[in-house]
Amino acid sequence: MTTLTSMRTHHPPPLPPPLPPLCPPNYLQYYNRYLSHGEVRVFKPHGMAAHLFIEMGTYRGGPRSFSIVGLASKPIDIFHHPPYACEWISRGGGGGGGGSSEAAAPVVVKGEVHKILPDWNYGRLYTVVVLTCKFKEDVGTDKSGGDLVLYASYGDKYREPERIVVFTEVKDEYNATLFNTPFPYDYVYCGSSIYGDVSPQRMREWMAYHANFFGNRSHFFFHDSGGFHDDVRRVLEPWVKQGRVTIQNIQQQEIYDGYYHNQFLVVNDCLFRSRFLANWTFFFDVDEYMYVNPATTLSAVLEQDKNVTQITFEQVPISNEICIRDNSTNDYSRKWIFEKLVYRKVLKRGIRYDRKYAVQARHVEATGVHMSMNMLKGKNLYVKGDQIRYYHYHGTLDKRSEVCKHFVDPRNKTEVVTVQHENHRIDETMFEIVAPTKQYELETIGNLPTII
Amino acid sequence: MTTLTSMRTHHPPPLPPPLPPLCPPNYLQYYNRYLSHGEVRVFKPHGMAAHLFIEMGTYRGGPRSFSIVGLASKPIDIFHHPPYACEWISRGGGGGGGGSSEAAAPVVVKGEVHKILPDWNYGRLYTVVVLTCKFKEDVGTDKSGGDLVLYASYGDKYREPERIVVFTEVKDEYNATLFNTPFPYDYVYCGSSIYGDVSPQRMREWMAYHANFFGNRSHFFFHDSGGFHDDVRRVLEPWVKQGRVTIQNIQQQEIYDGYYHNQFLVVNDCLFRSRFLANWTFFFDVDEYMYVNPATTLSAVLEQDKNVTQITFEQVPISNEICIRDNSTNDYSRKWIFEKLVYRKVLKRGIRYDRKYAVQARHVEATGVHMSMNMLKGKNLYVKGDQIRYYHYHGTLDKRSEVCKHFVDPRNKTEVVTVQHENHRIDETMFEIVAPTKQYELETIGNLPTII
């Protein structure tokens, strides 16, 4: 599949260090006032606490709009409400169609910026911003190319804005057909930032299951913020080679203190990356397994109502330590996670359990970890768990040893099991899918080692 | 008096712009990790939202301690709790006494930093910090000179601390006698940041009154954050020339968004500036007038209890518009503020009215606008208003026109006057002091113009 490369998405060119030289903010000549009288006090600054704006990626949304995903200094946003501005600078001829393709004076077209802060105020030094830049006319559709410029300001009277070229389209790059159906995939998976000491076996199992679940008209984006060590990459490599998986190396964002490995930034970047790749984009974690009732199909569930552009899924929380004793062995390590952890927590009234979701990415303006609050079109369906749900194997991903700790006598397996003051009941739904999953894996990528 | 210059206080040398070159924070070689695999995403930073640390001043507190007053990035402080470190680098010989005075290898003595955040969480981009650096032994007391170095850190694993030389003592500068009584003054006045379109007449009146109130063993520090325009400086000039007044030009701090013209920063800087200049330092505004019951004296009030090192004063809020009609004139502009505004608000139960205060600066570690929360020794006396209090002429300082708006018939002057739903009663206490004040002014500095 060449689709990923034909859809060229724009992010800053991946240059290695050293760091770009930083110019101090160009404070206006306010200083001159201070020389005139009195005992002049100098307030000597040191170091740099935070940048004003950090680009992650910019994506064209259509003939006259773009989405810019980044981080902004949180206190400046809160206290100064700094305005943003954007403009398109055509490479030649004009913003829209027509005109000769010979070199002409660049034309500047001013756009309007709509700012969204999608991270629920979780940001620390930085807050995630999604900026939608819209023009009143088509820009660059004559394929002459151009630059999208963002002005990020400080919101005070002392500093000029930062002028940032966030997107560059070269001559003939613009391709109108990319923005319309049909899309190259049915489904795209967008994962959150993955960090920590991840168990390769857990990734292997999840990958095999979901490659099968979504089928081969699907693509998976993972975001490595430190979790994808050598052994994890080894079990994913066959899928990468088959073009099913892309691992985005986002380790550099660790130095910018947004929130929790900048997960809100990452899901938004992936949202736009996926926008014209597939009809539906799924957002859930790699310790969560999607499940569809075999009486229906994933496609039927998603298409049940044309007005529905977002669907949120119920969670089945699974105990990460209760297993059924297998009298034939003491070694549970070769059993897959959804083969041996088969006890679900009994849900309590009045408690809000997390949900995950899928959206039609082109119909939302920004997104979050559990849902999109910025729908442009259509409605959100909180679908019933009997149709579709997900199984959450919380606390298993970075477990580098046997997970089974509490064993149930198989003769009593249907009884309530109480562990750590929580009641559990058996749910062998996922157990049924183990054999087909292993078979699918063998057929698709062959043998893999088991590395816990 | 040469005392102000003999007590050399340390703040960054008053160099004019251009800005010091800023080096980007020296991120550790974390970047190298990102090159190794996957689709590498670059997070391109732009601009600088805020500095890590901004020095205002550093003051020696004694043979083995110093106080550093500055601003720190607020989100870094809140989320990273960055540690501070300090050390003394002697110019030669050693930290303490003894040793030859010939050039010797510099000796580094590590101190301990105690951090105080005195601004009640009001900070926006910056929070005020007062750092007390203490050593286990005397430093620099051999008069060999030295540097005090502060390390301000980022509190993350990616950035090295900023090394800041905050204080330099030259050979023979150290003077042990400065830290002990007797002090050159009885009283020092520390004013908050003054901004806006200040009425010169109001400053003239306040100055004459308080120069008289505190007597000539007193000194006044004003802090100009934009309010001391030409005409204001004109009416203060005679006092400046007599050495009674110092105007600190703090306009540069306006570019750093702390809180309210960085007033918490300013009062702390002045606290330390005043520490060994006078027994008592007063903190109140230039629309507030101190008053002592003539049956006693200011000195007697302050010295009533040797254990009292801080005294807070009750406020008498004065209406800024009620005057007694003077049938002999229509022009009230030549009457002084405390001559014509003679109606006090009737205080309501259950409402907390602001107080102002005086401290023995050497007995507190940091301070605030209404009191010090960081007393090292002694106790705080909430003194009764009959002994000492202050009259607050709120809303008169930047009034560039006649303040009197509501006139009371002199025959009814003792009745309750209700204006804007607030009750007022006459209080002519300050009126009694107008004549002596004007006389004192004439005798001390001669005639001044009346510029509203």
Structure description:
With 452 residues, chain A is an alpha/beta fold. Chain A contains eight helices and 23 strands. In chain A, strands 10, 11, 12, 13, 14, 15, 18, 19 and 20 form a nine-stranded mixed beta sheet that branches. A seven-stranded antiparallel beta sheet of chain A has the order 3-4-7-6-5-8-9. A three-stranded antiparallel beta sheet of chain A has the order 17-23-22, with no helix packed on it. In chain A, α3 (200-214) runs parallel beside α4 and α3 (200-214) crosses α8 (434-445). The longest helix of chain A has 15 residues, at 200-214. Chain A is globular and about 90 Å long. The relative contact order of chain A is 0.13. Mean pLDDT of chain A is 91; it is low at 1-9 and 12-23.
Largest interface (C-beta under 8 Å): A-B, 75 and 76 residues
Tell me which oligomeric state these chains represent.
homodimer
Count of discrete alpha- or pi-helical segments spanning 4 or more residues of chain A = 8
Which overall shape of chain A is indicated by the principal axes computed on the Cα atoms? globular
Beta content of chain A: 25-35%
